[in-house]
Structures are given as structure tokens and as C-alpha cells.
Amino acid sequence: MAPLGGVKNTSRLTGERTVERTAAEEYLAGYRKILLDACATGRRLTRDEIEERRAEGVQAAEAGLALRELVRAHLAEARTVQGALPARSRDQLLTVVEQAVDAFAEGYERAQRLAVRQEEAARREFIDDLLYGGSDLGRLAERAERFGLRLSQAHAVAVAIGPEPYGDGYPVARGIETAVLARFGGQSTLLTTKDGRLICVAPGDKPDVLAFFAKQAYAATDGGRVAVGRSHPGPGGVVHSYQEALNALDLADRMALDDPVLHAADLLVYPVLARDRQAMADLVESTLGPLQQARGGAQPLIDTLTAYFDSGCVAVEAARRLSLSVRALTYRLERIETLTHIDPGEPSHRYTLQTAVIGARLLGWTAKE
């Protein structure tokens, strides 16, 4: 193959540039002959010639060469051919070069798109295994390094939900990811989406990353919510923290919690209470069952107890939260005591009643009336 014009003997080119241009020569196989033949006959490239240039473009992309250097090499080769052509054939050269370079670039871009899709598929598979533990943990740790995570460290996971599902490439998700990465850089942080949720995985010793993520997610969604799991060590730590965050979101729905940011560490009492569901169901039924005899059912009285306990058993504050007069609230509390034989204001009785109210919310008991 003839050397590219001005490549190896031009002193102004750096050594690095010379290596890149020389590497590009491998993907010009047959290109000079195509130019000479097409220009000599005045024809356009044949289908086989175009496909040949596409195939070379695919191989060049797979080899990791830069498209700009490859195009420059094509143009340099065309200049050497131009000098060998008779004057009457030179007008055809530009048309043929345009066809050849376009076909080469098409093959290059096709390979790039395929590589991107394969990378996305590999990333999605890794994320599924990371969040659900569906792979050998040793192998998972090896794959994690490719995505900037060191699973030998402890990690914590934050999960954000919004009024609309999150998706890869959505403006809101992209904006949050950009803000987090701009603030903290890589720092072994991974942002992704799963089942319409936005997820951030960060080292367990960097809680400020997840705090910033939660702030950005809440601000961007205008009504969204973020749950943060606890930090756990090892490859399985991400799975554990992720499940804690999901459970916190589910718990917030069942308990009607209105906090925009939930920390699993602050909600540990609820899983403990719900661990023995049968015992909790018995407590709820025996303690709150009599409230169903009230006019209007049990729900208004349970709402009264919820507001009363949430306000620290301060009747004035509870009445304000329920938009009731203090007298009306007091009447409801007396009615509760009459039906259950438990005084909400008596400290020794309050724990049983409050636990039953929490259990009713955990079990969705009032919905089963």
C-alpha cells in the first residue's frame, strides 16, 4: 500500500500524531484503487465498494481510533491521488471521496451505536444484579470496578420517587445526576433508574452525597420523596440498603408519613412492631375493634388518636390539626375511653392504645372494616 501523503516524512507532525495516522492506514485498504478507478471512468461507487468502506469503518471504530483522524487520513490519501489523475478526471474526485467517506463514517457510527447499546445492556444487567443480588458476589465486585464502585467498602442507597416515573435520559433525572456529579465528582457514586425510581448508590462514609442527592431530587420533583437506607458493608450491602429504602417508602405510604426525606434508621421501630403480624392483628382487633360501634365508624376516632399522639398528647394542638374545637376533641377522647375502656390520657394505658393505632396503620386495618 502506498504511504499516506505527507505523513511519515513531515517534520511538523509530532510522534503521537504520526502513530495515529499510520494506524489509520490499515483502514484505507482498497481506498486508493477505488478513487483511481471511479475517477478514471467517471462512475459512482458500486454497492460492493460502499459496503467495503462501511466494513472498514466498523473495524476502525472497534479498534478505538478517532473518527477525526480517520477522516483526515482519507483526505490526505485523496490529495495524493489527485496528483496522479489527469486534469479531466479531477472534478470527479470530490464526488467519489464524499461517497467513500460517508460510507466509512456510516459504518463507524453504526459500530459506535452498537457499542453504546451493548454498554447500556451490560450496565443494566449489572445494576439489576447489584440491587437484587442475582449474581456471584465475587464476580459482582469485579464488574463493579468498571462502574466506579468498590464493593469491599460499605455503601448506602437512596431512592427517589416523584409525581412522574423517572427514566434514563429524562431531563429531571439527568439534571439531578449532573448536579450530584458536579458537586462530588465520581467518588464511587452510581446514579441510575429502576422501575420508575431514581437511585443513588454512595460510599457509606459519605452521607453528604446522599443528603445532597435527596435535596436535589425533592427540589426537582415538586412533591417527590426520598428514602435513604442504612450503610452496610460488602457486596451484599447495596442490596440490603436498597431494600431498606424501598421498605421505608412503602411504610411511609401505609403510615401516611409526610416527611419528604425518610431515613430507614429512624423507622426501625415499625418493622419490629410488624414482625409478628398475627400478634399485631390481635392487638388491633381487641383494642380498636370496639370503636367500630361509634357513629361514623372507627376511622374518625382513629384519626383523632393519631393526631393526639402525634402532637405529644396536647389537646389544643391535636384539635388544631383536626380543625376541631378543643371541646369536640375532648368529647371524642371520652367516647374512645367509653368504648375501649382505655384512657388515652393515662400514661400506663397510652402505650397499648398508641401501639394499636400504629398497628392499624401498618396493617391497613381500617380499610378492612
UniProtKB/TrEMBL annotation:
For this protein, the record's InterPro entries field holds:
CdaR-like_regulators, CdaR_GGDEF, PucR_C-HTH_dom, PucR_C-HTH_sf
**Domain PucR C-terminal helix-turn-helix, first and last residues per copy:** 301-357
Q: Where is the signal peptide?
A: none
Gene3D superfamilies the record matches: PucR C-terminal helix-turn-helix domain
Q: Tell me where on the tree of life, at the top rank, the source sits.
A: Bacteria
Q: List, alphabetically, the Pfam families matched.
A: GGDEF_2, HTH_30
- CdaR GGDEF-like domain residues are 133-251
Q: Indicate the family of this protein.
A: Belongs to the CdaR family.
Q: What is this protein called?
A: PucR family transcriptional regulator
Q: Which species is this UniProt entry from?
A: Streptomyces virginiae (Streptomyces cinnamonensis)
